[in-house]
Amino acid sequence: KNEVEQSPQNLTAQEGEFITINCSYSVGISALHWLQQHPGGGIVSLFMLSSGKKKHGRLIATINIQEKHSSLHITASHPRDSAVYICAVSGSGGGADGLTFGKGTHLIIQP
Amino acid sequence: EAGVTQSPTHLIKTRGQQATLRCSPISGHTSVYWYQQALGLGLQFLLWYDEGEERNRGNFPPRFSGRQFPNYSSELNVNALELEDSALYLCASSWGDRSNQPQHFGDGTRLSIL
């Protein structure tokens, strides 16, 4: 069973700051997902990656397969980025077996 | 393109009753996943359906069950409700049955057990 650890658990920053959220996992995976959950509960999939780096607007996600580690970066953070960011992994068995989730990072961006 | 839709948004039940939650996947998606997000426990995988079959389930008792219909929509049934079943239940869908496909989430059904 994969163990997914995220850090930090809580992060408060000022608008404009560069944000980094880290995720590590214990067993080889086929893909890693970064998700965003707003207070209402709905979840938005930000990235799915299995190698390298992806960028979408102010968001950047990287993964190091050898080190079993991924980071999510937010550049020029804004109060609307305030949300819970969740790292999740898909198994390495080929077939989908449901995601295994980290506990999430609660991010607050103050104006 | 319509996203994943779940109904109802909120559901209030009492202990011992049964609850039925519904999910309509994105058009063209054949896989449906159910997840539970209980307070303090984080998101946990419940069930996975693909092409009408249950393909995998998480570490939940048999009173959590469901099915997938020919149009790929899905129901989650929870029997003999217990207080600890109070949670947000999220449905996600993806194309195909491979783990390297992105999952698209609905807004969830909040189930409260009194």
Overall description:
The complex is a heterodimer of chains A (111) and B (114). Chain A has 111 residues and is mostly beta strands. Chain A contains no helices and 11 strands. In chain A, the strands form 2 sheets. In chain A, strands 2, 4, 5, 9, 10 and 11 form a 6-stranded mixed beta sheet that branches. In chain A, a hairpin with a 2-residue loop joins β6 and β7 (59-64). The relative contact order of chain A is 0.34. In chain B, the strands form 2 sheets. In chain B, strands 2, 4, 5, 6, 9, 10 and 11 form a 7-stranded mixed beta sheet that branches. In chain B, β5 (42-50) and β6 (53-57) form a beta hairpin. At the A-B interface, β4, β5, β9 and β10 of A face β4, β5, β9 and β10 of B.
- Computed over alpha carbons, the radius of gyration of chain B is 13 Å
Order of helices and strands of chain B: EEEEEEEEEEE
β-strand percent of chain A reads over 45%
Q: Strand fraction band of chain B? A: over 45%
Backbone structural class of chain B: mainly beta
Structural class of chain A: mainly beta
Biggest protein-protein contact in the assembly? A-B, 29 and 32 residues
Residues in helix, % of chain B: under 10%
The chain-level mean pLDDT of chain B equals 93
Number of continuous helical runs of chain A: 0
Tell me about the biggest sheet of chain B? 7 strands, mixed
| DSSP summary, beta strand count of chain A | 11
Which spans of chain A of ≥5 residues are poorly predicted at pLDDT below 50? none
The Cα radius of gyration of chain A reads 14 Å
Summed over residues and divided by their number, the pLDDT of chain A gives a mean of 92
Cα-to-Cα separation, first versus last residue of chain B? 37 Å
> Tell me about the biggest sheet of chain A?
6 strands, mixed
SSE order and pairing:
The complex is a heterodimer of chains A (111) and B (114).
Chain A: E1 4-7, E2 10-14, E3 19-25, E4 31-37, E5 43-49, E6 52-56, E7 59-64, E8 69-74, E9 83-90, E10 100-101, E11 105-110
Parallel strand pairs in A: 2-11
Antiparallel strand pairs in A: 1-3, 3-8, 4-5, 4-9, 6-7, 7-8, 9-10, 9-11
Chain B: E1 5-7, E2 10-13, E3 19-24, E4 31-38, E5 42-50, E6 53-57, E7 64-68, E8 74-78, E9 87-94, E10 104-105, E11 109-113
Parallel strand pairs in B: 2-11
Antiparallel strand pairs in B: 1-3, 3-8, 4-5, 4-9, 5-6, 7-8, 9-10, 9-11
